[in-house]
Structures are given as structure tokens and as C-alpha cells.
Amino acid sequence: MWRRIIFILFGIALAVAVLGLVLIALNLRGEAKLPPSPSPFESSQALVERGRYLARAGHCAGCHTVRGGPPYAGGLGIGRPFGTIFSSNLTPDQTHGIGSWSVDHFWRAMHNGRSKRGRLLYPAFPYPSFTKLTREDSDALYAYLRSVPAASQANTRHALRFPYNTQLALAVWRALSFTPGVFEKDPAKPAEWNRGAYLVEGAGHCIACHGARNSLGATQDQRGLSGGLIPGENWYAPALNAADEAGVANWTLDEVVALLHSCTSARGSVMGPMADVVWGSTQHLSQEDVKAIAVYLRQLPQTPAPARPPGPLARDPAVMARGSAIYDQRCAYCHGDKGEGAPGAYPPLAGNRAVNMETPANLVQILRHGGFLPTTAGNPRPYGMPPFGSVLDDQEIAAVLTYVRGSWGNDAPPVGMADAMRR
User: Fold this and answer.
1) pTM across the whole model
2) Quick one: pLDDT at residue 30?
3) Partners of 120 in the beta sheet?
4) Which single residue of 43, 97, 274, 327 could bond 91 by disulfide (Cβ 3.0 to 4.6 Å)?
5) Element (H, E) at 319
């Protein structure tokens, strides 16, 4: 009896040891060891400026700067279904920032997702995309971050539930979901397309919001960009490869460039999280790089719109009547009696693909919280949307959005209470 128990325990211990070794091996695949002594590093003004530009391209300040706080000092809470992750201090402070990091430590964080001491980093820091950056661009970012004012702001401890707060959980995730890589140019594509792909897939990490995720929260198919709810938020990042969402394959090049540089074009405008991206990132990129991004996005393989049953969707007449009354009172003054909008000021709602998307998540957020287009050189005085969350309850929000999504030729699914209650 005891022999059998010992044999079983030995088998379990052996299996655990083998699984542990496999897990370690999978987490070390493609990862070079740090050199025994730090690589020599000499900064220059040109390298700093290159890093400053790349930090804009990656919108690093968007996560690593709290509003009103020191630049790049971290502390911004990033909500996830399993808790809150707080961005880290990237200033050259010796105690709390990266002042004691070598250029090799920084490269390992960008390329392999490891801290200076080798701990696994959470992929809220988008190293699955940054792994595609060249070593030269990583070094430039390091040079720039070493040039910003040091801030002695301590890093905030993550607030994560067990077991997500363990290195073991991260190791399992990485073993299944991450392999260090490099950007591979497509020899069949022109240099402009490849530059756009490098920015979108690498520094821009567009997949972090616009990518579909599997059950483990890992993004899938780098060049799919097929949309999804932004983790920890109630905003939906629409698919960039679908004409009925945010695909631009049928837009002109100038229309895409205008959207990314000025936040608005003849075909649409940006609000919500994308407004922050344009404000802090894409409007500052060179005309050549924005054009390269536009070229890449216009050539993404497109997915067809989901099939719908023939005929208009069924709607509750009472809900439509209530929504119509709210629209006449609250919305028609700006958006028009027939949802026609006002050119250069208020977007049309009739035929608007943001209105007709399958998910109404963004409409709920905009109606409840309002928002402005970002201020840009091409649109210095943008019009905005006031918040109605204080004057409309959940039922009224659902009713007016159901009305808008079912009027003037629009035919999107009605908005239910479950959608309207999302804060």
C-alpha cells in the first residue's frame, strides 16, 4: 500500500518537474541572454529626436503619464477583467524609473517582455507588438526616455486577483501566447507598404485595441485587426478589415491620411479612445509615415459583413415612439430632423456605419459621456458632443439609440438594457 502511494507521489513529482522544465523552455525560446557586461551606449541629439518620434508613434505617454502628472512617470491604472495593472515609471530616476537600466535591459523589456531583474512583464505593456521593433529603434527610445526629467514617483503595485498576480500564471500565458520575433518585410510589397506595416504592427501596436482575442486574452492574427472590446473598457475597437466597421479599403488615400492627421475627413471622424491616439500620436507623425500607414490599412484583406435575414429588423413600436420623442427634444437640433447632420460640425446619423455596427457599445459611451474630437492643426476648433448620462436613464438611452439605429435607412439591432447599462 505504502509503496503504491510513494510510487504515485513520485510520478506526480516527476510530471510536475517535467512540466516545469517545459514551461521554462517555452518562456526562454528565442531569447538571448544578457551580455556579461552592458553594451556600450552613446547617445546623441539625433538619436534622442528619433526616440522622441518613436514614442509619439507608440503613444507611450498615453499610458505612462497620468493627467497632470510628470511625463512618463507612470501610475495610470489599466483595467483588465482580472484586476488593474498600473503603468510603470519610465523616467531616468535611479530608484523608481529606468535610471539604473542598461540599454540591454531596455531592449530585453521591449523584445522579450522582461524587467531589469528578469521578471515577466504583463502584456498590458504591449511587448507582443514591440518585439518587432528593430534594436536601433529600441536604442533610440532608450536614449529619449533617458533625456526626460527624472521623476521620483514610486510605481503603484498592481491590484490583481489570484492567480493572475503570480509569475507562474504569466509564464503559462507566455508559453502559450508569446514568442519573441522580428518584423519581416514582405518582398512582394513596396517599401511604403512595409513601412506602414512596421508602424502598425510594431510601434503603433494597433492590434492591442483592434485585434480579436482568444480565451486567454491573447491577440490573434497580427494582420487581421478584426476588432473587439478593449480589455477593461466598454469601448469597442472596430474591425479595420471590414467595410461595415472601420475598414478603409474603399476610401481614398487622402481620406485616410486626413482622418489620421486631422481626426476628420469626408468619410468619418474619430471619438473615444481613438481621439486620444490621434491627439497624442498620429497627428504628429510625418506625412510620409501617415501615408504609409494608410497604404497598409487600405490593403488589409477584407472580411465580408455578417449575413442578416432579409427585410428590416423587428422593433417595438412603443420603444421607437419613445426614442423619437427623445431624439426630437435632445438630438435633432444638431444632427437634423432626418439624421442628416451638419457638414463640418455634426456628423450625419443616417447611413453612418458607426451607428449601424452590430455592437452599440460606442454609441452608448458617446451618448452617456459625450466627447470631443481632438484638437489638431487641420481641425483646431472641433465640435463636440455633450454628455447626456445625467439627463437620460438607461431605458431612455436604449430607446433613443434603438430609434436612431432603425430610422432614415439605418437597420441595426435594437439596443437592449444590458447594453445601455454598461458604464
Assistant:
1) 0.91
2) 65
3) 114
4) 97
5) helix 317-330
Task: Give me the residue label for grid cell 552613446.
Answer: 42
Which amino acid, residue 207?
Answer: I
Residue type for position 299:
Q
Mean pLDDT within 100-122: 95
Helix axes 167-177, 2-28, angle to 10 degrees: 60
Could you count the other beta carbons within 10 Å of the beta carbon of residue 170? 20
- The per-residue pLDDT for range 286-313, each reduced to its tens digit, is 999 999 999 999 999 988 877 777 778 8
- Label residues 353-367 b or e (16+ Cβ within 10 Å = b): bbbbbebbbbbbbbb
- Type of residue found at 68: G
Residue 40's contacts (CB-CB under 8 Å, 6 or more residues apart) are: none
Q: What gap in Å lies between CA 164 and CA 166, rounded to an integer? A: 5
- For the record, the C-alpha cell of 302 comes out as 477584407
Taking only the tens place, the pLDDT of each residue in 324-352 is 999 999 999 999 999 999 988 899 999 99
| DSSP-derived secondary structure for 252-281 | -HHHHHHHHHHSEETTEE--THHHHHHHHT
